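Entry 14. Ran structure prediction on the chain below.
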Amino acid sequence: FPALMSRPMALRQVRRIARRYLNGNVRRVGTSVLLEIPRSITVGVAAGDTGCAFYEATLRELLRLLVGTTGSVEHTRCEGRGEGSCEWRADWRGADNAQARAA
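Output, structure tokens:
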């Protein structure tokens, strides 16, 4: 499917999976997808924000499986650093650039 059709379908699936398995919320902001975890189960299990790598890897893999590839995933807020909740931003523009190079 072209991105115009596949992205909204993938976003619905990511939202559903995040809500069910990660107790998180996913929303789209411009060309980015934001995953927010209000209460991380991995906070404090490792030094620094290493425990948060679980959620980052989950978001990256979900987007890779549903869209075919993903751009960068950035940990923008961390409960472990006292910022309230954990949040990750995935850039889909990187996915478009990777697909264009492959074509």
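Strands lie at 25-29, 32-37, 73-77, 86-91. Will compare against last week's run tomorrow.
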